[in-house]
Write a structure and sequence with these properties.
By secondary structure, the protein is an all-alpha fold. The chain has 13 helices and no strands. It folds into three domains: 147 residues, no CATH class; 77 residues; 77 residues.
């Protein structure tokens, strides 16, 4: 019965938005991307065609409601024209720009968007609806993972049932009670339960890591970078040398960007590892406040040479242990990390960043020693 009631509420919500869409050109209740289809896609195609950003959406040279490569290219051209990131993904910022351009102001002032109050995309209404959309997508992913899973999915199904109950409460709060704070909170509960279901069904850890762990690592790294940046800016105001710290912080930000890209590609293990690297770099950046921007060249060179010798010795020990039948998988992983760290040290040395080169070489040496300790006889 709950499933039927929930389906009725979802259907009612969709019908509500569809009816309102008639008064405001296109109405969007979801993000649109390649591979999707529907009346909202057709309406977007028609708009882009009329505006001169795309045509030939089908072999009949008319909108066909299928978001294919040509539609994506048209969206990218349109986004570029109006200063938006040209992702080809028609997301919330693009939709906000659309309603602004068609003469309805922003979401909060349009006939369609007026439903979201006077604050538009900053309103509690809008945020609650976005959270509901995120939860619905996660619930759909969870159901797919359960359907495709070869393992026992009882736990995943229970989590998905919890998500459905939460979603029912969220939709009721949004459309019936108009309590947007409660709608947001219940939708967030639904999202968390849906992500639990994905993990439990194997989707979150299907060789690619845990989505939630990766997201938490990225959020933690972002917070640590923000804190480090505040410390560096304060030190700069106090007249301290922050050149080295800023260089390392830039590396941390680049690493975090890589983590977010891997996360978007569903490579959650890689995303988590990169986020942790970003966290480490942010810590190094804060530690580097006040350091001389170049450091001592001789000390850096010696540290690199020492690390190389330690790595060579560790590699010999690991190879010998492998020949003797020991388990060296963890040891080899740590040794690879040591070699990568040493490469970073060499690069920093070549860039005349000797303090950083020395620190990285010391890290490499520590990892090489850990690698030897990790040999399991």
């Amino acid at each position: 019965m709950k499933t039927k009631i929930l389906g009725f509420l979802f259907l009612s919500a969709i019908m509500f938005f569809a009816l309102r869409a008639e008064a405001a050109s296109c109405g969007f209740i979801r993000d649109l991307g390649e591979g999707m289809g529907g009346e909202d896609v057709r309406c977007l195609q028609q708009y882009l065609s009329d505006a001169g950003y795309g045509s030939n959406f089908s072999r009949f040279s008319s909108p066909d409601g299928i978001f294919g490569p040509l539609t994506r290219q048209a969206v990218m051209r349109w986004q570029s024209a109006f200063g938006l990131p040209a992702s080809g993904f028609f997301d919330a910022p693009s939709q906000a720009k659309y309603f602004e351009l068609v003469g309805n102001g922003n979401f909060g002032n349009s006939n369609f968007g007026g439903f979201f109050g006077n604050q538009g995309t900053n309103s509690k209404e809008w945020k609650a609806m976005e959270k509901i959309k995120d939860a619905l997508r996660a619930m759909d992913d969870a159901q797919n993972e359960i359907d495709d899973s070869n393992r026992n999915t009882n736990s995943a199904e229970n989590s998905l049932d919890d998500a459905k109950d939460d979603m029912m409460d969220a939709v009721t709060a949004f459309f019936v009670d108009r309590d947007f704070s409660k709608a947001f909170d219940k939708a967030d509960d639904a999202l968390q339960n849906a992500e639990d279901a994905i993990d439990e069904a194997g989707g979150g850890r299907n060789g690619n890591g845990s989505k939630r762990d990766a997201k938490e690592a990225i959020d933690d790294a972002q917070n640590r970078i923000d804190d480090a940046e505040d410390s560096i800016n304060q030190a700069d105001d106090d007249g301290e040398d922050v050149d080295e710290a800023n260089n390392i912080l830039d590396d941390a930000k680049d690493k975090l960007d890589d983590a977010e890209n891997e996360y978007d590609d569903h490579n959650y293990n890689d995303a988590e590892d990169l986020a942790n690297d970003a966290m480490d770099l942010a810590n190094e950046a804060e530690d580097a406040i006040g350091d001389n921007s170049t450091g001592d060249r001789t000390d850096a060179r010696e540290a690199i040479d020492d690390a190389q010798n330690t790595i060579d010795d560790a590699e010999d020990e690991i190879n010998n242990a492998d020949d003797d039948g020991a388990d060296v998988n963890d040891a080899e992983d740590l040794l690879d990390d040591a070699k990568n760290k040493l490469d970073d040290a060499e690069n920093a040395f070549d860039d005349h960043r000797y303090s950083r080169a020395e620190n990285l070489a010391n890290d490499a040496e520590d990892l090489a020693n850990e690698a030897v300790d990790a040999i399991d006889f």
